[in-house]
Amino acid sequence: MSEDATPAIACRNLWQVFGPNAGAELASALAANGGDAAAAAAELRDKGLIPAVQDVGFDVRPGELFVIMGLSGSGKSTLVRGLSRLLDVTAGDVRIQGEDIAAGSKARLIELRRKKLGMVFQHFGLFPHMSVLDNVAYPLRVQGIPRARRHAKAREVIELVGLGGRESAFPRTLSGGQRQRVGIARSLVGDCEVWFLDEPFSALDPLIRRQLQDEFLQIRAKLNTTIVFITHDIAEALKLADRIAIMRDGEVIQIGTPAQIVLNPVDSYVREFARDVAKGRHARVASVMKPASGITGDGPALREGMTLDAALATCVAAQAPVPVTDGAGKIVGQVDPADLVSALHVDDR
């Protein structure tokens, strides 16, 4: 994202506090503690309030797949409900494509959800008395779009999620994975620009879950959609994300690319998430590359987008720094075998 581009989602100093007079209590705690968020949160807990989201801020870039992950109770689902204004936040600012959604009227919020925001949750929420076609077309029906047009659009999206031929089926006749595909199709039928998904695959069997993750990436490649995806599964996060935000006790602890999360965890909490991750399958050569220093293109070379696993044999066999090239074949850096081995080292601390 260029410096002057408007973020798809901009979140600043976001708080979600549950309890009596939450807004006033938060303002008082922040004032009493000189704006120190951690101290204010501790004071709120002492008073019996629950600071479920604490002073969170980040930008999501247009077209980015931004994953928010953490353990149960970390605040990730509460955060996404604040971003989408399913909950009115206690304090802070959320802007979607530059628009302050907290300032919008109820009518404006309904319009945003119909025309701009898509949402998918763990529980499918399908209408049992409606066919797949009518379930998917329902958001267009609410918009008053004629039956023929909405069904034509619904058929396109049903095909996109791999359910072509099941348009007349009812939810009770579908598997869990198929029902989740219907939910995904329904959220996409309005050509959403920002898509919120809260643990959409967590209720599925592992095999179906992996299949849907693969299909999700294929769908994403065909869309120009910004995605916020909630999960508690580090493998899922690493597979899907452009960037990951890791939460603990209402706070965002680290934001980074999958390689940054795996190779450079900021503390023991993040390190524990990545402990059993096969680093070489997720980190890329660019994450350990150094500036090129007098190296030539003679002999073997690495590509900056290669995984560390793919680069290992070439780099170690060379026993010397290996050039790294970009997509056009231009040398953009180098990798030392020792740096590659160090990056792949399993930290048992």
Automatic annotation (TrEMBL):
GO terms, molecular function: ATP binding
PROSITE patterns tied to this protein: ABC_TRANSPORTER_1 (PS00211), ABC_TRANSPORTER_2 (PS50893)
Residues that span the membrane, as ranges: none
Repeat is among the record's keywords: no
SMART domains for this protein: AAA
Alphabetic keyword roster: ATP-binding, Nucleotide-binding
InterPro entries in UniProt: AAA+_ATPase (IPR003593), ABC_osmolyte_uptake_ATP-bind (IPR051921), ABC_transporter-like_ATP-bd (IPR003439), ABC_transporter-like_CS (IPR017871), P-loop_NTPase (IPR027417)
PANTHER family on file: GLYCINE BETAINE/PROLINE BETAINE TRANSPORT SYSTEM ATP-BINDING PROTEIN PROV, GLYCINE BETAINE_PROLINE BETAINE TRANSPORT SYSTEM ATP-BINDING PROTEIN PROV
Protein name: Glycine betaine/L-proline ABC transporter ATP-binding protein
Native source organism of the sequence: Seohaeicola nanhaiensis
Native organism taxonomy: Bacteria, Pseudomonadati, Pseudomonadota, Alphaproteobacteria, Rhodobacterales
